[in-house]
Design brief:
The protein is of the alpha+beta class. It has helices at about 5-15, 55-70, 100-115, 145-165, 165-180, 225-230, 240-245, 255-275, 275-290, and strands at about 20-25, 35-40, 40-50, 80-85, 90-95, 95-100, 130, 135, 190-195, 205, 210-215, 220. The protein folds into two domains: about 5-95, Phosphorylase Kinase, domain 1 (2-Layer Sandwich); about 100-290, Aminoglycoside phosphotransferase (APH), C-terminal lobe (Aminoglycoside 3'-phosphotransferase, Chain: A, domain 2, Alpha-Beta Complex), CATH 3.90.1200. Helix content is about 45%, strand content about 20%. A hairpin with a 4-residue loop joins strand 10 (about 205) and strand 11 (about 210-215). The longest helix has 20 residues, at about 145-165. The model has no long low-confidence stretch (mean pLDDT about 95).
Length: about 290
C-alpha cells in the first residue's frame, strides 16, 4: 500500500513530519485491516476499512477520548481519523502490549470499578456507535429498563427478524421485553461510563503491566453490563473480580441479570454470524423467563 496520504495526515495531526519506513500487518481483527507504521523512531497503530466506516472510526476515536477523560485507566490516544482517497482510517498511539500478572489483573479490576464510578444524568450517549460492525443506538433515556428494552434488545430482535432468525427467537424476545422490569424490582442502576464491548480481546497490559483497554462501544449504562460480558467468553482472572469488588462491590442480584445483559451480545452474534447463536439465545431466554 502507498502510505503517502496517511503520512501527510499523521504529520498534520502531530505537527511533526512522519515518513513510513516499515509497515507491519497486525492479525487478529475480523472487521478491519490493521498495521503498525514505523518511521524515525515513531510508531502508530492504524486501522483501515471501507469509506462507509468513516463514522464508525469517528465514534471509536470519541469513545477512546471519553474513556481517557477521567484518567483512571489507560487507553490508546487517537491521533487522527477520517477518509483517504479509497478508504476510512483511524490512527492511534501504538502501545507495546504484554500479558500482565495477578497484581496487574487486580489493578485492572480496581481501575474498571473507578471508571464505572463516572456517571451521567441519563443512560446512553450523545452519539451512536457500533458493537462489532452492528450499529449501536445510544439515544439518551432517563429510564434504564426502557433504554435496554428498546435500544439494545428490541433493536437486535428487529435485525434478527430482517435476517430470518425464526419465530421462536422473536416470540421469546417479545415475552422477555414485556417482562423486563421484573429483573429490576429492588435494583436501580445509575448511568456508569462503560467500555461496552469488554471481552478478553479488548484489553491487555503495557510493558509496565499497566492495564490498557481499547476497541470500545462506549455508552452510559448499568455497570453490570460490562462485568457480564467479561464472563461471557472468559479470559478474566479471579484477581480481576477481586479488584473490582474491592472498589465497587456488585449488587446481590447481579447473577440473575448477567444472562440478560449477555443476551444482547449473543443476539448480536446471531445477527452477525448466524450458526448456533440462535439456539443459544433461545436457551438463555427460556432460562431468564423461568427465573422471574
Amino acid at each position: 500500500m502507498n502510505w503517502l496520504e496517511l503520512e501527510a495526515r499523521i504529520s498534520d495531526a502531530t505537527q511533526a513530519t512522519f515518513c513510513v519506513q516499515r509497515s507491519v500487518p497486525v492479525a487478529g481483527g475480523s472487521i478491519n485491516s490493521a498495521h503498525v507504521l514505523e518511521g524515525a523512531g515513531k510508531k502508530y497503530f492504524v486501522k483501515l476499512n471501507a469509506k462507509s466506516c468513516t463514522e464508525m472510526f469517528a465514534a471509536e476515536a470519541e469513545g477512546l477520548a471519553e474513556l481517557a477523560k477521567p484518567g483512571v485507566i489507560r487507553v490508546p490516544q487517537p491521533i487522527c481519523w477520517g477518509e483517504l482517497a479509497d478508504r476510512a482510517f483511524i490512527v492511534m498511539e501504538h502501545i507495546p502490549l504484554s500479558r500482565g500478572d495477578q497484581y496487574s489483573a487486580f489493578q485492572f479490576g480496581k481501575q474498571l470499578a473507578s471508571l464505572h464510578r463516572v456517571s451521567a444524568e441519563r443512560f446512553g450517549w450523545h452519539r451512536d456507535n457500533t458493537i462489532g460492525s452492528t450499529p449501536q443506538i445510544n439515544r439518551q433515556d432517563a429510564d434504564w429498563v426502557s433504554f435496554f428494552r428498546e435500544q439494545r434488545l428490541q433493536y437486535q430482535f428487529s435485525l434478527g427478524a430482517r435476517n430470518g432468525c425464526g419465530r421462536e427467537v422473536l416470540n421469546l424476545g417479545e415475552i422477555l421485553c414485556e417482562n423486563l422490569a421484573e429483573f429490576f424490582h429492588s435494583y436501580q442502576p445509575q448511568p456508569s461510563l462503560l467500555h461496552g464491548d469488554l471481552w478478553s480481546g479488548n484489553y491487555a497490559y503495557d510493558e509496565s503491566s499497566t492495564p490498557v483497554i481499547f476497541d470500545p462501544a462506549v455508552y452510559y449504562g448499568d455497570r453490570e453490563a460490562d462485568i457480564a460480558m467479561t464472563e461471557l467468553f472468559g479470559g478474566f482472572s479471579s484477581e480481576f473480580y477481586e479488584g473490582y469488588n474491592h472498589v465497587f462491590p456488585l449488587d446481590d442480584g447481579y447473577p440473575l441479570r448477567k444472562n440478560l445483559y449477555n443476551l444482547y451480545h449473543i443476539i448480536n452474534h446471531m445477527n452477525l454470524f448466524g450458526g448456533g447463536y440462535a439456539r443459544q439465545a433461545v436457551g438463555m431466554m427460556k432460562k431468564l423467563l423461568s427465573e422471574i
